[in-house]
Amino acid sequence: MTAPKKLFIKTYGCQMNVYDSERMAEALGGQGYVQTDHAEDADMILLNTCHIREKAAEKVYSELGRMKVLKDAKPDLKIGVAGCVAQAEGAEIMRRQPMVDLVVGPQSYHRLPAMDAAVQGGAKALDTDFPEDDKFKTLKTRSKAKRGPTAFLTVQEGCDKFCAFCVVPYTRGAEVSRPADRILREARELVDAGVRELTLLGQNVNAYHGHERGLAGLIWALTEIDGLERIRFTTSHPNDMDQALIDAHGTCEKLMPYLHLPVQSGSDRILKAMNRKHTAESYLRLIDRIRAARPDILLSGDFIVGFPGETDQDFEDTLQLVRDVHYGQAYSFKYSTRPGTPAAEKPQLPDDVMNERLQRLQALLRDQQQQTQASMIGREVKVLFEKAGREAGQMIGKSEYLHAVYADAPATVLGQVRRVRIVQDSANSLKGELIG
Ligand code: 5AD
Ligand code: SF4
């Protein structure tokens, strides 16, 4: 018997890339590949890339530079670029780095087996189509191998919103929802393999329309699956938060009280220039309605500072919105010019202005995150334990609010949801005591 070929995948960017990497590994599993954690052992290396900001995209070329040493040492090694940089730059990647054998976009990776056969024959393979034969029809079933208690499940891809800063409509294409019956089948397969918590993924997940009652309908259908204990979803657009989804946050026990709802800016002028199609006020009213349905919900968001034309006053409006909402946690970024997007044409702000604003915003968000964590002390939460901690006898998991929680517990808690009282908070996690 020949030894299996080894596949090393490095994943950048969002959670959907994590999901896609799993599916790529499964697709290549049929070609005799097994995954390795060590690039030096690999017969094929795939970089699953992100194009959302300039820094993310540039990382790919520096990583490819490092990989060249491995390819020089092992000429049979095949190197592939997948994901959003592959989609955005296509053949340009092979021009810049001729040692790259394979370039595959996020909608064509079901064709990896055929592409592998081509590169093994010494050819180059490039596929950045948005094919009619959707990848999930080809990659029907999931691996039956036992897995950890949490998993991602892509239910929707692409985006039709065209925010002026964003590459997603170009890299991931138009909004597409997977049919609910196929998602339910995949969810059952994941639960059979040990999954207890599913995070439903989409670039604009709450625009999901593969179920007649939208994302809320899909969530309710998923609650029927025995053994599935928790459901989350990310990432949402404020304008697609319909009443049924807000209500589900109040009434669906399996839906966790955590919501990532990016606003990007608190200035109406900038929101308009960003083509967000909502105002700061409409976002705040939406938050009121969500909190009315689920008062303890933990809110998360995304912010961009230094969008072209942003004045000091616009930035102050963003800080004010953050104070008004009070986020449990959030992500913030300096605006990054993305080729091909409408905002790329506009004059850019100086870097020092952007840096200063980012620091102020991050300080405020950090304060709010710390306050939220500190407010958990003394409270009882439910933790889904995922893995052993660094110290002997410690287990780590996530609370319903997505806080990392560690506690002294036997290994039998792994994969279970257990009651924990929070006793202490530290930088990025909470310490708790098992009480049930
Ligand atoms: N520059 C900076 N941040 C961006 N994001 C998207 N595009 C850009 C860009 N051009 C941020 C947004 C989005 C998150 C995924 O990344 O905040 O919600
Ligand atoms: Fe990055 Fe967006 Fe692609 Fe995810 S979908 S990898 S965030 S560019």
UniProtKB/TrEMBL annotation:
InterPro entries: Elp3/MiaA/NifB-like_rSAM, Methylthiotransferase, Methylthiotransferase_CS, Methylthiotransferase_N, Methylthiotransferase_N_sf, MiaB_methiolase, rSAM, rSAM_horseshoe. Its cofactor is [4Fe-4S] cluster. One of its GO terms (cellular component) is cytosol. Its EC number is 2.8.4.3. Keywords: 4Fe-4S, Cytoplasm, Iron, Iron-sulfur, Metal-binding, S-adenosyl-L-methionine, Transferase, tRNA processing. [4Fe-4S] cluster 1 binds at residues 14, 50, 84. Monomer. HAMAP family: tRNA_metthiotr_MiaB. This is tRNA-2-methylthio-N(6)-dimethylallyladenosine synthase.
